[in-house]
Amino acid sequence: MEVGGEVSPETAISRWKLGLSQQYQHMLDKTTPHVLRRWVGCLVVASIYVLRVYLVEGFYIVSYALGIYILNLLIGFLSPQVDPEVYDDGPTLPTSGSDEFRPFVRRLPEFKFWYSITKAFCIAFVMTFFSAFDVPVFWPILLFYWVVLFTLTMRRQISHMIKYKYVPFSFGKQRYTGKRASAESKSLPED
């Protein structure tokens, strides 16, 4: 509330928070087209976290939880938005070459995948500065359990991909080139 032309502290704080969140969102929006740079930045953040855990020689529970979270994100990234196993009456993925082309729509888009992983590494890095999160465990058992969990989960995901005949990656797929390709084909002389 404004009292005699002055702005109350609550209003000033809410304006400051709004301005800060708008600047943060603007920065995120500007990074959207720079896929390679974003992932290199994520790799740098992940490397800093791994180096911190290695040098401190602890926080294995935090790393294990981070690994489980990243595995969960990876499953969402590799899964279609509409799971053909669950929804029989909805739109289906093409199963033969004569079916209509429908692009693969992920349950978790690439940008949100990147953002969630980067944010998770940052949060885990901050957690390494608090000794309450450094629970003493025998880390080889956690690593073994995570590898087994990863293997079983990926086997199930790959069998799901094979069963419903979808590929969540776009390399090697035909791409529509637009007007340029049709203009070039018109300008070529016919034999």
UniProtKB/TrEMBL annotation:
Keyword match Membrane: yes
GO biological process, one term: protein retention in ER lumen
Coiled-coil intervals: none
Membrane topology note: Multi-pass membrane protein
Subcellular localization(s) per the UniProt record: Membrane
Swiss-Prot/TrEMBL keywords: Membrane, Transmembrane, Transmembrane helix
Transmembrane stretches, start-end: 35-55, 61-78, 137-154
Cellular component per GO, a single term: endoplasmic reticulum
Signal keyword on record: no
PANTHER family for the chain: PROTEIN RER1, PROTEIN RER1C
Task performed by this protein: Involved in the retrieval of endoplasmic reticulum membrane proteins from the early Golgi compartment.
Family affiliation: Belongs to the RER1 family.
Name of the protein described by the UniProt record: Protein RER1
Organism: Lotus japonicus
Classification of source organism: Eukaryota, Viridiplantae, Streptophyta, Embryophyta, Tracheophyta
